[in-house]
Amino acid sequence: MNTDEALPDVAVPPGELAADAAAAGSAQPEVMEITSVEDMARQLAETRLREQDYWDRLVRAQAEFDNYKKRVEKDLQNAHKYALERFARELLAVIDSLELGIQASNASQPEVEKLREGMELTLRQLTAAFEKFGIQVIDPLGDKFNPDLHQAMAAQPADDVEPNTVIKVFQKGYSLNDRLLRPAMVIIAQQAAASRIDQQA
Fold it and tell me: Domain 85-200 is of which CATH architecture?
């Protein structure tokens, strides 16, 4: 067969050409949709908001934990400082009895004087033991009346001191590490009637 001979023309229907072109087009790689700058900015803003929310929650949780830790530490400190409170209250009656006994022993007989000396020594030892454990005596004679530490039993006119000055202590008060165990029972000075009349005039 002579290869130089022209090949016969073959007519191709137009429909087949269109189908081939479509098939060739489908073989191309798919083009992914590109997110717009506005969408990216919105997603970034949402991410930052979530991040800030998580951070705020973490800060609040840390603050709550710190407050809880401080409360626990304070409770433990108070438990150590005031563990003797009930015991100290019971001993106040002992001190009161000693002081009353000393006040009552005014006789000059040798036996009574020895008893008084022994009671005074016991009172000093007990007071020293109290101070060692943070128990302080509140003896406000001559001081200004303090409602946080004193309990006024009565008021009496007095010209030689300023009003609201403690002029008599019925019963001493006591505190434990600055916490009041018992207020001091006192009488306070009241402005004399003559002075009030002079001021009014």
Answer: Roll (2.30)
